[in-house]
Amino acid sequence: MFRNYIKTAWRNLIKDKQFSLLNLLGLSTGLACVLLIFLWVQDELSVDKFNANDSRLFQVLKTAPMADGGIDTYHYTPGLLGQYMQKELPEVEYATVARPQTGILSVSSKSFKANAQYIDQNFFKVFSYTIVDGSANSFALNKYGVLLSDKMALKLFNTTHNIIGKTIAWDKKEFTGSYSVSGVFQSQPSNATEPVDLFFNYKIYQTIEAEDLANWGSNNQNTYLLLKKGTDADAFNKKIKNFTKDKIKQFYPGDKYLLQWEGDIFIQKYSDRYLHGNYVNGKISGGRIEYVKLFSIIAIFILVIACINFMNLSTAKASRRMKEVGIKKVVGASKGSLILQYLGESIFMAFAALMIALFLIDLLLPAFRDITGKYLTLKLTASFAITVALITFITGLIAGSYPAFYLSHFKPVSILKGKLITSSGESRIRKGLVVFQFTISVVLIVSVLVVYQEMKLIQTTNLGYNKENVIRFPNDGNLKKNVAPFLTEIKKLPGVMGATTESGDFFGQTSHGGGGINWEGKDPNLGIEYYGNDVGDEFFETMNLPMAEGRAFSKAFADSSSVIFNETAIRTMGLKNPIGKIVSLWGKKKQIVGVVKDYHFKSLYDKISPAFLEYNPNSDFTLIRINAGNEEQTIAGIQSLFTKFNNGLEFNYTFLDDDYNKLYASEQRVAVLSKYFACIAVIISCLGLFGLAAFTAQKRQKEIGIRKVIGASVSNVVAMLSKDFLRLVLIALCIAFPASWWLMNNWLQGFAYRVNLSPMIFVVSGFSVVLITLITISFQSIKAAVANPTKSLRSE
């Protein structure tokens, strides 16, 4: 019997090629989308999960009050925090601290930019790293020893063996020196968020930064905890909330200012930081997990739309299988056996669609990698095969359930008379499914338009400076000792319009900052967190930053004791006529020489906050504005000078506008993916509508014949058939518009600067869907309208 079912399914598949092709196209497209999203979601959920003690590994985070009454959250904590938490809190099995640093690693003539971390003796008890040569103990005992990743060892020595004891050079300000290799560790997997090229002994950092590390008011370390098994993280968070405040009371009694602006601490699971990286007023509030949820929901909806499409197409051709059902019932086939047969056919169709979907994935995967920025592969592991088979089986089961029950319930007498009798309930179900399909499609279309407009706003917003045609690179190696002569030579190059230096960046990274600024008449209860940055000569001129008052930094003045604030800072400080006034920056007297007009030095998620700029011509990065039109020649000249000043070091530069766009990389990817998924949802929905139009045309063919006999024109018949479908689409629009407005309004709340939800977005979406609907149903409507009425009426 099973073989007979397969044979019947195959014959039905090839007998009606049009419907079979539409069914396969809809299901395979839906499955391909679902599996691509599954690959991406699986990769996102696996980020930073490589540690053996993942479930017990946490990072300590810290909050701080902000000037506007909000609460900021950051990852840096006091250097003393880890050891005190391990000593005083029985829930902590191990605590470790780490300080990241980027510098230049060299051996002989080879030099590479490298990511380092200074780690203490507990680090490898908390994190899972495999030492492939040497040992963690020998590294811990050697203050000037380093551990190299196997990838960095290959770069430096072309091997990972027999390199213990060899000398490397590290170039990073006061940490510059020679170190010996104590071992080699296996590099982290590609889905680790903190790639490390080498580890230094924390004792070096303790020696150089002893003063800061002993200060409970200085936050400059990452603190990680391995909690004991069975520890309740929520209860632990309540216990440690005031831990640093208590230490300040203990070690700095009477320091009300420091205590006033001290925040709370809390822990977050280490592997959760990637997906749950947004914080609102000191609380975890989403992050990339929102996009994981979003695309998981989209995948489910696309699969449901594909199943609905299958149902509508299957019921549309039900009349062609009526006699088959009737004869089988007459000869003794039970309702259950028929249900089993038709479910088997739909599952067979689903697995046939899976084969096509896998072929589509193979074609689309390279483009999908480019869009997502991830190297995703289709690995046919046992777990993946089982998951895919299960998804396909469930898809076939859901898609075939309604057609199976629909076909099997026909009465043999009615069927053999050629009468296809359907109830109003069945009609409502089919129409409801179409409404659902188009509701989801419209929501996706509106979402795509809103995301596009927000991305356009981000690209066109006046940031207060000119980010176009500016290249940026670090002053590494020998260059940092020769910044002034290097800039002098750079400015002589044709195509260079300006050159300067800065520390920090325009995207929220500060060179220094905090709340330690005082001035005469300051309200003792006023606490302000400042963004602070060092900039060099001609910074304001190069970046086209206009002054609101006073002057910019200049070589003509001794500006080492000068400071420039932005307009927001001056307003918040309440200073009138600020030029010439003296302020204290962490105990150092500075004179205000200018007020720069407000500009965006963070992403558009944040409003412009108080900021100050200090003069430092030897800042960490070089910014060069080049003339548009001959960028290649100008950059080639800059590279030649860079090599001259810093021979052996690779010239790595970025364009400032590209760096800016990276702030919104996730949103850009969401915009692109949503666009494609919206198109696919609309296409699959139209296939379902096509099926319903075919079903309606078959059901009403005698009515159409009679209308034509009594004088109805082709346009009358087309209008009659079309208005029912347009009514369904209008119902879908009425549901989709409020839903999409609510969803997009919530999404836009994450941006400090956002577009308004214009009615035109909904008008365009509605018009597009109505037009697509008319095009989809026109084929079946016109086909039914021009048919010869004698063919449909001759049996009467």
Question: Could you describe the 3D structure shown?
Answer:
- With 796 residues, this protein is an alpha+beta fold.
- Strands 17, 18, 19, 20, 21, 22, 23 and 24 form an eight-stranded mixed sheet that branches. Strands 4-5-10-7-9-8 form a six-stranded mixed beta barrel.
- The two termini are 38 Å apart.
- 35% of the residues are buried.
SSE blueprint:
Blueprint: H1 2-15, H2 17-45, E1 57-65, E2 71-74, E3 77-78, H3 81-88, E4 92-107, E5 110-119, H4 123-126, E6 131-134, H5 136-141, E7 145-149, H6 150-157, E8 167-171, E9 177-185, E10 198-201, H7 202-208, H8 210-213, E11 219-227, H9 233-240, H10 243-251, H11 256-260, E12 265-269, E13 279-280, E14 283-284, H12 289-316, H13 322-330, H14 335-372, H15 382-408, H16 412-416, H17 424-460, E15 470-474, H18 483-490, E16 496-502, E17 512-514, E18 517-519, E19 530-535, H19 539-542, E20 547-550, E21 562-566, H20 567-573, E22 582-585, E23 588-596, E24 611-615, E25 621-626, H21 631-645, E26 654-655, H22 656-662, H23 665-699, H24 701-709, H25 714-748, H26 759-786, H27 789-793
Low-confidence runs of at least 5 consecutive residues: none
Structural class: alpha+beta
Strand content: 15-25%
Q: Helix share of residues?
A: 40-55%
Summarize the structure.
The chain is built from 27 helices and 26 strands. It has 796 residues and is α+β, with helices and mostly antiparallel strands.
